[in-house]
Structure formats: C-alpha cells, structure tokens
Amino acid sequence: MKKSGAAERAPGSGLRAPGAETAGAERPRILIADDEQSMREWMRLLFQRDGFEVMTAADGVAARDLVTREYLDVVLTDIRMPKLDGVQLLKAIRDLAPDAIVLMMTAHWTRDSVEWQDARELGAEALFEKPFRDVNLVTMQVRQLLEARRLRHENTVLRQTSAGQGFAGIIGRSPVMVEMFSLIETVCRTNSTVLISGDSGTGKELVASAIHKQSLRSQKPFVAVNCGAMLETLLESELFGHVRGAFTGAEKDKKGLLEAADGGTVFLDEIGEMPKAMQVKFLRVLQERKYRRVGGTEESAFNVRVIAATNRDLPKQVSEGRFREDLFYRLNVIPLYVPSLRDRAEDILLIAEHFLSKYTQEMGKSIDGFSAEAADLLKSYSWPGNVRELENVVERCVALEHETRVRPSSLPENLREGRPATLRPAAGSASFDAAAAEIDGFSLEQHLRDIERSHLELALERADGVQTRAAEILGLSFRQFRYLAKKYGLK
C-alpha cells in the first residue's frame, strides 16, 4: 500500500486482522528512515526476511507523519537526514509514541558526537555504523529489545491484576484477558488508531475508555458516538458540526465532536453501521486530518485519537461491499479483540461478585456472595449477552434475594435451565402463520409494527420503565430505543 509523500509501506504487508495476536508479538512493525534509497530497500528486505512488517521513509518529516498515523514497534533512523534529522525525529517520537523502540544509525561513525549524546539522553537504544558489519547482530538486537519491552508490559499487567481484580477498571484474570491488558498497556502509549472488535455486551467502550485514561491524552476529553443510532446527516453534523442555516433547525453554529474532543479521544461505536456515503467522507477526514462543518466552506485541522468498535465481521462486510476497504485499513492500524464471557469462564464469578457488591450497596442489602449451586449455574451458562447480561442477572438477584447469599431460585428461569433468554409475546399481540398471508386486508408492515411495539412495551415492563435498561434488554442503543419509544408514543 503506497503512502502519500515520501512514506512507503512494504508491498503486500497488509494489516493485522481483528483477533490477531498482540501487536508486536508475531509480526512487529518497524519504520526505516533513511534518505538513501538503496539503504532503505536493502534494510526493507533484511527485516522482511526476519518476519517484520516494514515501512520506510525518505526523510524525517515523512517518518514523523508515519509515526503520527501508524502503530510502530521500532524506528531505525539515520542521524543525518533532510527536512528533519534523526535527533529531531526522536524528540517527536517521544511525544507521539513514547513506547516505541528507537535505534540510530550513521555513516559518520563516532560515539562521542553531539548528535549521539543527544539521542542517548532522549532514550535511543543503540547506534549502528553504516554499512552494517554484521546484519544478524542488528536484527538480533532489535528482537532482544522487543522481548524486553514485552516482559516489562507483562510484569506491569501482572502486578496490577494480582493487586486488584483487574486492569484499568476492567475485571478479569484469565489468560486471554491478561493478554488483552498487555496490549492495552502497549497501545495506550501511542496515538495510533485502534479498532476494537467483539460480541455485543463484552465491554468495548470500557476498553476504549481504559486506553484513553492511560494515554498521553488522559487529561483531555473522551467523546463517544454511536454510528448506528443516527441518520447520515445527523451523524455528519455530530462529528463535524454545522453552520447556521445548514439545514432545517440549524439555528446557530454548532461544534462537532472532533472539535469538542480536541487533544483527546473520539470513540466511534458500531462503526460497521456507518452509512456508506458517510464512510467516504470520514475516510477523507482521517487521511487529511481536516474536516469541514456541514454547510461550511472552511476546513479545520483536528487533533484527536480515533478508536472505533464493532460487533460485526468487518472483513466479511468489506468482501460483500458493505464497508469500504480503504476505511477498514485506515481504522485497523491496531486491532484489539475483546473476548466473549464464554471464552473466559474463570472470570464469571469474579465479575458477578463485583456487580453483587455494586448493587447490594445501591439497594442497601446485606448479601455476601453466591451459594455453591448458584455459582455453578453462573459458571455453566453460555452468556450470549456477555458481561451486560451478567450485570442484569446480578441486579435482578439482588433485588429478589431475601437471604444473605444468592440462591438458585433468584436466578432467571432460563439460566437455571441453561437456555438463552427470550421475550415472550405480549398479551393480545397478533400471531402470524402461513394462512394469515392469504387473508384479505392483511398488512405485513402493520403486523411488524405491532410486534415491534409489543416488544418495546414488554421490555419497558421488565425494566420497570427505565429506558436504558429496556434498551439493553433489546440489544439497542439508548438513542435507538428513545427514537422508537417516541415513534410509538410510549412513556
């Protein structure tokens, strides 16, 4: 994939797909910055042969731009380059990606040079003389530095998980979660775009928030928007803002979320639901790092980190033409997969006890745990609704339980029987069979509206009128539920 300017990506290198191994664990990413084309190409082949994903830049400015856009494990840069020398590039890297390993090289060999002394003070790991006397020594040293960094991150995660229940507010001690925590610990130190994937209810927004809170942008805003809850025009206005008179109801200028989150992070939930036309506009904004308010003519630069999330199979959507391939690659710089609850059964009771503590405090009850039978039922259930479903179940248990420990009788009937929860038809709702389609005057559209309304009413009944809970029961966002409730006149 060719990059703009003097920056290049190795042919056929591709990007890691959702669910891939931890960044840097299997295919570390290295940037070679050197103004000599023959040197760049030779080192590209050298590191590709050793299993690296390689990008190259012909000058310091192009290298800095790549560091701004891409996640990089290693930067190997010449000390003397046009536009921006190696030491100036290193200063920029320390601000943009402080966790990246930076190594210097020069044909003007001297360890006493001012440039090398400055580079060492800024954290450069090594200085290599060009041409390399032993190429295997170079790749071996890079591998050793990567392994040392991996162990540092792993130790940090293990200290946090052993000291408490989880990491950065996320509950879990299972191996798959420790691996995810390690990746969060790595990527939070960069400004690269992250694409979070996982089933509904796994806590993707919590992961995005954890990345933000531990990043260099933690003191700036974290702004979330659900791409599936808005029409295209509304989503465009939410992201980019609008000027007065841009459309009916636009009575004054309005800031967009990219502007409101300046210096911070924008979280795009359900990115797979973004309308196709909006995908084109957003791709351009990501590439140019500039946006234009709806109805406006002036372009404005923005400085935010983008984190996107989806419960869809985006590669499949790309192959089916329902999601733009170029936008997928632009978002999928660092893929991060949030495991389903069924894939980390050893965390179920840990999470359940966390919610038990939360809701007993809220409701003023004295419940100190789960009975052995209730605990076994919780651990054996498949949890299709993931952590969100588990929270709802524990909240129900606290509300219904009169003893000091949660008993099986307080658990939902479907959970006791080991089957997924289902919504029963509302009393008086129309039933549909093959003969109904032949009845004169039958309206399929009206029939579906009746079903939709009855499910909304039932969800509200189960949620005691709390719309946020009703939305969760139906697997809808709050915005989607509020829109439908208003459509059917429900209160």
Secondary-structure blueprint:
Layout: E1 7-9, E2 29-33, H1 37-49, E3 53-57, H2 60-69, E4 74-78, H3 86-96, E5 101-106, H4 114-121, E6 127-129, H5 135-163, E7 166-167, E8 170-171, H6 175-187, E9 194-197, H7 204-213, E10 222-226, H8 232-240, E11 241-242, E12 254-255, H9 257-260, E13 265-269, H10 276-288, E14 290-292, E15 299-301, E16 305-310, H11 314-319, H12 325-331, E17 334-337, H13 348-363, H14 372-380, H15 386-400, H16 413-416, H17 444-462, H18 467-474, H19 478-487
Parallel strand pairs: 2-3, 2-4, 4-5, 5-6, 9-16, 9-17, 10-13, 13-16
Antiparallel strand pairs: 1-3, 7-8, 11-12, 14-15
Helix pairs in contact: 2-3, 5-6, 13-15, 17-18, 18-19
Describe the structure.
- With 491 residues, this protein is α/β, with parallel strands linked by helices.
- It folds into 4 domains: 7-153, Response regulator (Rossmann fold), CATH 3.40.50.2300; 193-337, 3-Layer(aba) Sandwich (Rossmann fold), CATH 3.40.50; 341-416, Helicase, Ruva Protein, domain 3 (Orthogonal Bundle), CATH 1.10.8; 434-487.
- It is 44% helix and 13% strand.
- It is built from 19 helices and 17 strands.
- The chain has helices at 37-49, 60-69, 86-96, 114-121, 135-163, 175-187, 204-213, 232-240, 257-260, 276-288, 314-319, 325-331, 348-363, 372-380, 386-400, 413-416, 444-462, 467-474, 478-487; strands spanning 7-9, 29-33, 53-57, 74-78, 101-106, 127-129, 166-167, 170-171, 194-197, 222-226, 241-242, 254-255, 265-269, 290-292, 299-301, 305-310, 334-337.
- The strands form 5 sheets. It has a 6-stranded mixed β-sheet with strand order 1-3-2-4-5-6, sandwiched between helices. A 5-stranded parallel β-sheet has the order 10-13-16-9-17.
- Helix 3 (86-96) links the parallel strand 4 and strand 5 (101-106).
- Helix 5 (135-163) packs across helix 6, helix 13 packs across helix 15 and helix 17 crosses helix 18.
- The longest helix has 29 residues, at 135-163.
- The protein starts with 6 loop residues before the first strand and ends with a helix.
